[in-house]
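Lab meeting notes turned into a lecture example. A postdoc, R.K., suggested we walk through two folding results consecutively so the class can see how the record format repeats. The first protein's sequence and C-alpha cells come next.
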Amino acid sequence: MMSAKVVSFLISLFLALTGSGCSSPGNEAKNPPPPAESKVVSMTKADFTEDTPIADVMSDPAFEDFGRLLFPVQSSYYSGDTLGELRLSYYSHIDPEETVEIVNTLKENALAGETVFYDIYTEEEKAADPAKEDTGLFFFRGEPDAPFAVCNAGGAFAYVGAMHDSFPHALELSKKGYNAFALIYRPSAQSACEDLARAISFIFANAEEPGVSTDCYSLWGGSAGGRMTAYLSSYGPATFGGDDLPLPGTAVIQYTGHTDYSGQEPPTFVCVGDSDGIASWRTMERRQNALSALGIETAFHVHEGLGHGSSLGTGTAAEDWLDEAAAFWQKQIDKSAFVNQQGLYPPEIQCFQGI
C-alpha cells in the first residue's frame, strides 16, 4: 500500500494538472482576474435599477458634485432607500420606472461627454450666500436650436420635488425634440422666483453652449413651481432680479391655487384634478377665465378623480396632458415664427402674444 504521504502528493499533483481547486496557483494562472478596464466599464455604465440605493446615485462619479441635488436637499421630505422606494411629500402617482429612466438618461449623457448640469451662480455669489450652493439647472437635450423650457417642481416652498415634478416633464419634452431644463432652487417663494429669473437670464446669456433657441421659450411648473411659473410669466425676470428679458411664449401650470395676474400674461395652459385637496380647480378656473376675458389664449383641463402632485399622470385620466400642453406651446412657437417671418414686430420681441 502507498503511504499517506504518497497519496497526498498524488492528489496534489492531480489537482495542479487539472486546474481543480479554487486556491491552487495553477487555477489562478489559467483564470486571471478581469483587466482593470472592464471593471471601470461596469462601474460607469448607466445601469441603475429600482433596487439601486439612492445614496449610490447621489455619489456616482458621473454626477461629480451635483448628484446630491437630484434628490431633496431637505432629506426629511423624502422616504425610501432605493429608487423604487422613493416617495416625496405631497406627491401621488409615483412612477418608479420614470425615476430610473431619468437618472439613467442623465448618466448616459454625462458619460457621453455632454453637460447635464449648469451652475447659475458664480463661486463668489455662492460664497456670499451658501444657500445658492443648492441651486442649478439640470439639462435634458432636445434638437439643436430648438426652443427651451424651464420646468419647476413643487414642494410647498419647503423643498424641491424635482424627481417627481420637473425631471419627468423635462425628460418627456426632450424626447419631443425640445430643450428642457429642470431648476433646483432655494425653497422660499421670493428666493425661488429670484432663482428662476437668474436661470432664465443664464440661459439667454449662454444659449450657444447648450445649443438652444431663446425664441418663444416656455415655463412649466406644478404646485409651488406653478406659482413660480405664474409670477415670472406675469412680471418677467427683471422684476425678480434677472435681466430685462421678454416674457415666456407659453406658461404651463399644474395644480396650484395661484390667483394673481397682471394682464400681460402669455398664452397659458392649466390642468388640475377635481379631487385635489390642496389646489382647487375652481380657483384655477377663475384665473383662466380672467385671462381669457383679457384676450389671452388659455386652455383649462380638469381631470376626474385626480389628486395633488400627479406629475405626468401616468395611468390616470390625465396621462395625455403633457402631449396637449406641448401642442399648445408648439402652436405659439408656430405663430411666433410666422409673424416673425412677416416682419410684423421688432426682433427684440421674442414671441408674439395676441394672434
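The second example is placed directly after the first for contrast:
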Amino acid sequence: MQELTHYIGGAHVKGTSGRFADVYNPATGEVQAKVPLANADELAQAVEIASKAQVTWAAVNPQRRARVMMKFVDLLNRDMDRLAEALSREHGKTLPDAAGDVQRGLEVVEYCIGAPQMLKGEFTDAAGPGIDMYSMKQALGVCAGITPFNFPAMIPMWMFAPAIACGNAFILKPSERDPSVPLMLAELMEEAGLPKGILQVVNGDKEAVDAILDHEVIQSVGFVGSTPIAEYIYGRGCSNGKRVQCFGGAKNHMIIMPDADMDQAADALIGAGYGAAGERCMAISVAVPVGEETADRLIEKLVPRIEKLKVGPYTGGNDVDYGPVVTAAAKANILKLIETGVAQGAELVVDGRGFNLQGYEDGFFVGPHLFDRVTKDMDIYKKEIFGPVLSCVRAQSYEEAIGLAMDHEYGNGTAIFTRDGDAARDFASRINVGMVGINVPIPVPLAYHTFGGWKKSMFGDLNQHGPDAFKFYTRTKTVTSRWPSGIKEGGEFNFKPME
C-alpha cells in the first residue's frame, strides 16, 4: 500500500507522529493509501523553514514573483490530465469535473500574475512643507490554509497563489481524504521556480489544525469547510491574534418564477443539484417554485431528467454524470437524512435509496433523490445534506420565496430564474446572500471578482480571491517623509499648521 508524505523544505518527508489516516478509492470502497497525520513538532519544523525562506522571497520584486505564477499556469495545463486523474481517484469526481476543479484554481493563479499592479501603494506629494506621504503593501510573513476534500485543487490554489504572489510563505493543511493533488501542486510550484520552503504541505487532522492556530509565527489562516469548524477556527485563530477568514456551510435556494423557461430551469437544477454528487458548497439543494402550477410543471420536467442520470466511477466514461461521495460515513449521513425527510412527511418523488452499481457494491455511491412539498421545519431543509438530494419547497408568492432564502441561517449562494427584469433586479438588491445568480444556477464569481457568503456561511471581513485576496495577505504601512532643504536654525517644539 502506498504511504504518502508531507512536503517540507522542498522534499517529500515521511511522517514521524506514528499516526495515519486511510485514503479510499470512493468508487470501490478500498483503502488505496495511507497519509501521515502531523503532530505539533512536525508543523513547527515546517514553520521554521517557512519563516527563514519568506524573508528572501518577500524581497523578490513582484514582477519576478508573477513570473513564477506564469510558469505555474503552463505546468498546470501541461499536467491537467494527470492532476484530474489523481483527483478523481481519491475524491470520486468524474474526470471532466476534476479537470474543472483544477481549471478554476488555475484562473486564480492567472489573476495573481497581476501582482505588480495589485501591490502598488499610494503616494501624496507635498502633503506639507517638504513632506511626502506614501503607503506600502507588505507581506504578512508565514500564512496557512486548511482546505476541504471537495475541491482539493481549486481551493488550495485560491489560498496559496495570492498569498505567495504577495511575498508570503504558505503552509497548506489539505483534507486527509484526498491529499495527493495538493502534494503534486507543491512540486509544480517549485518546478515553476518557487524557492524551497515557500509552499509546504503538512497533512493532518485536528492536532495539526490546532498547532496552526496556536503557532505564534503564523500570521493568517484561511479555512473552507463546515460551519461548526469554521466558527471554532475563527474564534481560536482570532483570539491568538491572527488574521482569519473562514467559509462554512450552505443551503442554496433557487427561485423559479412562473414566467421562467422551465426547461432551462430544470436543466440548471440537474447540474447544480446533482453535479459532483452534490458535494459543493455552491450546489443548489433547494428549488423554490412560485405557485402550485409552476411547481407542478417543474416537477414534471425534473423527474425524467433525474431518472436518466448516469451514476458511476470516473473510469466509466465522460457520459457519467456524477460519481460516489467521498466516504462511507458521508454516504451513511446522507441516507440517514433522506430517511428523516420521509419520516417528517416530505414526498420522495424520485427514490434512489435502492441504488446499487454492479461491480461496485462496496463503493460509496448514492442514487439521486428528489423531495417535493418540503417545509422549512424539516431537517432536510434546515441542514446541509452535501449529497445528490434536491428538495422542492413550494412558495405561494415571490415574497414568500425570497423570504425563505433570507430567513435561512446560511447565505452562501442563491439564484432566481425569470424573464422579468424588475423581479431580477429586486431580488439581486434585497437578498441577504453573498453570491447571486440571475438565470445562472451556480453563481461562482470569476477570479477577478471575490468569492464569499454571508451569515453563517462566512466568518471574517474579506472574501476569497480577487482584490480581497491581496488585501487579506498584505498589511499596509504608511510612511511620512521629510527631507529638509537648506540650513535650519534649530528645533521646533509645536505643530505648525499646513500651509
